[in-house]
Amino acid sequence: MPIAIKDYTWEESDTDVHITVPIKGNNSSKADLFSSDEYIKVNSPPYFFEMFLYAGVDDSKSVAQLGDGVIVFKLIKKELGIWGQLSSSTLGDKDKMKARRDDAVTEKHRRIEEETEEKRRKKREKEKLALNEQMRLENEEREKIHEIKQTEIRQATEEIEDWKKKHQVLPGDEPHPAYMTGHDDGDDEHDEEDDDEVHHTPEDKKALIDKLPPPRTRQNISVTFTPRVFPTPMRESRVHEEDEWLRKQAEARRIPEIEDEDLAPEERDPFWLKDKGDSFFKGGNFQAAVNAYNTAIRLNGKVPAFYSNRGACHLKLRNFIKCIEDCSKAIELLTPPVPANASSRLRAHTRRGTAFCELELYAEGLQDYVAALKIEPKNEQLRQDAERIRHVIQGTT
């Protein structure tokens, strides 16, 4: 229950009122203050202070000063004069106090909204003035550029007119026809011969044809293409991701040398162990398959199929946590996602999603089934399983 502050002090003059409110042991900067024209409030748990003023004050000009464990209100009176008392006669009537308190809060909120709207209006006016000024400056700049262009056009026109005047052909200075036609006078006989049509005999035509070069011989050009691991054309491929995947595959194929006298020569090949584990899995001997995959991973821990297959064994053995760990490791190694590892990613997501559902973590299981559906959207069985998980989550089954 809040403790009402009673040991406040106040003093007044004809123009203002000073109220000092002590907050014992509390930080005054963290106190909640509220003031209006006729009501002030201080809330600093566990202390509480409120006062219904004797007369109205100008809240917009009044201030509150926060000190060390004390709050001082300086209230400016609306009307000059001495009050003689600080609190209103309403004090003691709970209904009237509640009504005046609600009215003060409502009036404060209305005033804040008006001030906010006024600030927005002034901001819009400033933005409008700034925009108009910017448009005016741009128009002036365009007019200057237009005037410069017109001046340059006038100068170029004047220069052309001056050049025409300087090179104008006067009467009597026309060039001789011989210069215009390109023929010399007195060579009329030669001109007539040039005007006659030239005729060629069949022999001349045959001689011209014989002089033509022979046609080019036809040849075949063999084009070879660099073989690609991925089926997509080079222009449509994601070169960086595919190169990264091929690099990981090459690293996974490198078999480290492990000194273990108990291993036979063929047991040092992790891929031979994988095939052995696959045969154990098909025969239903899941624990033996896990042992084979364990040795393969010890020899080479960068092949995602080893983890995915061991996860399938753990799923059969109901070791769901280990299944989730192995499938997560396989998905981590199956990056970047490329078409070549799509089927492996599909199996890893499906197995991990099944393990999550067995642990009743249906939301996580649904995420894996959705990821599997993105890889193979036309898989109807996956779609049905995902729908069943959604029903379980929604509680409709």
CATH superfamily of the domain at 260-394: Tetratricopeptide repeat domain
Calculate the terminal CA-CA distance, rounded to whole Å.
50 Å
Gross geometry: flat
Radius of gyration: 49 Å
> Mind describing the biggest β-sheet?
4 strands, mixed
Main β-sheet, spatial strand arrangement: 1-6-5-4
Mean pLDDT: 81
- Report the order of strands and helices: EEEEEEEEHHHHHHHHHHHH
Proportion of residues in extended strands: 5-15%
- As for the CATH topology of the domain at 260-394, it is Serine Threonine Protein Phosphatase 5, Tetratricopeptide repeat
What CATH first level of the domain at 260-394 would be assigned? Mainly Alpha
* Proportion of residues in helical segments: 40-55%
Number of strands: 8
Number of helices: 12
InterPro entries: CS_dom, CS_DYX1C1, Dynein_assembly_factor_4, HSP20-like_chaperone, TPR-like_helical_dom_sf, TPR_rpt
Region (Disordered): 94-127, 168-220
Protein name: Dynein axonemal assembly factor 4
Biased composition (Acidic residues): 185-196
How does this model look, in words?
With 397 residues, the protein is an alpha+beta fold. Among the domains are: 3-112, Immunoglobulin-like (Sandwich), CATH 2.60.40; 260-394, Serine Threonine Protein Phosphatase 5, Tetratricopeptide repeat (Alpha Horseshoe). The protein has twelve helices and eight strands. The protein has helices spanning 94-166, 177-181, 188-195, 202-211, 239-253, 270-282, 286-299, 304-316, 320-333, 342-358, 362-375, 380-394; strands at residues 3-4, 9-12, 16-22, 32-35, 39-44, 47-52, 57-66, 70-77. Strands 1-6-5-4 form a four-stranded mixed sheet, with helices on one face. It has a four-stranded antiparallel sheet with strand order 2-3-8-7, with no helix packed on it. Strand 2 (9-12) and strand 3 (16-22) form a beta hairpin. Helix 6 runs antiparallel to helix 7, helix 6 (270-282) packs parallel to helix 8 (304-316) and helix 8 runs antiparallel to helix 9. The longest helix has 73 residues, at 94-166. The model is unreliable at 173-196 (pLDDT under 50).
